[in-house]
Amino acid sequence: MSEPKVPIPAPEDTYKGWLFKWTNYIKGYQRRWFVLSNGLLSYYRSQAEMGHTCRGTINLATANITVEDSCNFVISNGGTQTYHLKASSEVERQRWITALELAKAKASRMQAESDDSGDDSTSPAASQGAGSRNSEVQSTLRTLNSKVEDLSTCNDLIAKHGSALQRSLSELEGVRLGGETSEKIRQVTERATLFRITSNAMINACRDFLALAQAHSKRWQKALQAEREQRVRLEETLEQLAKQHNHLERAFRGATVLPSSQSNPAIDSKGPVPGKGDVSDEDEENEFFDACEDVQEFITVPADPKYHRSVFTASPLSKRRSRIPDKPNYSLNLWSIMKNCIGKELSKIPMPVNFNEPLSMLQRLSEDLEYYELLDRGAKCQSSLEQMCYVAAFTVSSYSTTVHRTGKPFNPLLGETFELDRVQESGYRSLCEQVSHHPPAAAHHAISERGWTLRQEIALASKFRGKYLSIMPLGSIHCIFEKSNHHYTWKKVTTTVHNIIVGKLWIDQSGEIDVVNHRTGDRCHLKFAPYSYFSRDVARKVTGVVTDKDGKAHYVLSGTWDEKMECSRVMQSSRGGENGADGRQKTVYQTLKAKELWRKTPLPEGAENMYYFSTLALTLNEPEEGVAPTDSRRRPDQRLMEQGRWEEANAEKQRLEEKQRTVRREREREANRSANPAEEGKEPADGGKPMWFERQVDPMTREPTHIYRGGYWEAKEQGNWDSCPDIF
């Protein structure tokens, strides 16, 4: 009968699993989740409690472990803590016993070493020279000794279970064929299983010892080679110092006459210096400089190559601004404006600038590149699954700037653009254009010198429901890595603005995202948990699983969309956790230690007075020379609002919106005339089509979308904006 594969406890591993713990005579044994780590055995009611509530912990260094029967065992520290535990089978019990005995032996050794180290004392002078080097060697020796002790413990266990197996085999030889044969065979099978488990633990311990010994052997060889090279450098330096010392002595003996600029007139007037004869001023000067001619100003000692720097430096970058004018304290009741707009599209609600922030939607879209470094790192990955982790972290990081940003961005005018040229600082450049007004849609294209391209077309569908405002982004985001040709796509989640009627506005992100690698079939499923007052989970939680094309999990992602994301490599997965909300068992992942993928950069000082803008957001509306006349930086109402002149900004906003309506009506009339055969040949009015993007069917998703056609950066280089419409 085959058994499910369970990880064999290795000496250094954290061991986890379900056990039944005796609670009291009323409830009896209750199922609990136990974790063995660093010589401590802790338990929880469920795996979900591991992050916040530990129900009890016992130190194995001073504990006694006794076996009661085939499934039951007891752990006691001789004091108030006693755990009566029961495993699901004898094999499972023996796995725990093996892991506990190994952990106890290691904890006892560590405690003894700690006591010994506390008794030793070394003078600061003696430890100054070789302290760090000796401590490293001593630490390695202690680790190797610990491994040897683990091997010794495993050897004792193998001897113990081997003897038991031998006894069972001897008993089996003397058994007559009959009813007790099957029972004896079962016992032998269990003994053989226990022997296999212990042998595997021994093999794991041997493997760890061998790997550690090999690794440290290589390190010591490198350290020895480094010491030899350092010794050679020191010998060369000493030789150079000796030569310079000789030069200085000769110079001192030869330069007995001071230079004319430093000579004493009283001494010079007395004639020649005794012992030197007649020497002219010219001879004195020549003699002085000849003596010092071979003396170097400083000593050059070879440095580690990592400290070498190129002598060529890039041209200095212009410093970008780090502040904008503080937000004025103008009070206005949002409900008085929006109570008549329930059920309408947000883009069709006339809003004063009082509820805006001095950025356009195109600039907000460009803020997705706040943490572009994640894509830079992803471009360097050799593994597509690891690359998927960085892409998934990038999708989450784009929401981190929204946590306090309750202001509404300006709706871009049709044909409005925004460029973000960060080639010198960050290696990328980005262009956005408003390609549709009703429904509002913006196209975005960014390309990096570091091997990635990002493009997207986002249309916003929004509804005001009285108590909250829901914003649903429509459209796909594409990320293509040049070197591997991996093509990723995903969509955005729903943004909800709460407390529209009363209370402080706050923002939540909720929904699910599927990041798909169309070349390999890898997938990452991300879940943005909606905020719930009754939930015990951390707020703004995001979880995800990275799977290959066959659905096998390789990484688990966790974190929050406003702070950080981490990934853990999956070593084994099984169904055996608590039942989820849908009644099915949750999948339990055994993972390695978590690795941080992304962490939010703190906001600049005084951000609460500057619309909670990030460092990047503060620079987006900074005036720049050479941008297109349609660039958002040139929008007058937005500029007036940033300067705190809100009344003028409201008047300018109304003028621009009326101008856009007039242009749209004229464009519709031109389109109608073009449809008339008598008017055939006439071109539609300017602004009817996007300038820098063209509508195509995406070859990957088969969705109609706007893709960058090129020409913008060439036009900027030539300073030729004649084809741009006059929208401001």
From TrEMBL:
It holds the Pfam family PH. Residues 631-672 have a biased composition (Basic and acidic residues). It comes from the Eukaryota. It is a peripheral membrane protein. Residues 120-141 have a biased composition (Polar residues). Residues 12-105 form the PH domain. Keywords: Coiled coil, Lipid transport, Lipid-binding, Membrane, Phosphoprotein, Transport. GO terms for molecular function: sterol binding. It is found in: Membrane. GO terms for biological process: lipid transport. The keyword Ion transport does not apply. One of its GO terms (cellular component) is cytosol. Residues 217-251 form a coiled coil. Residues 108-141, 259-282, 623-694 are annotated as: Disordered. The keyword Coiled coil applies. Belongs to the OSBP family. This is Oxysterol-binding protein. It comes from Cyprinus carpio (Common carp). The lineage of its organism: Eukaryota, Metazoa, Chordata, Craniata, Vertebrata.
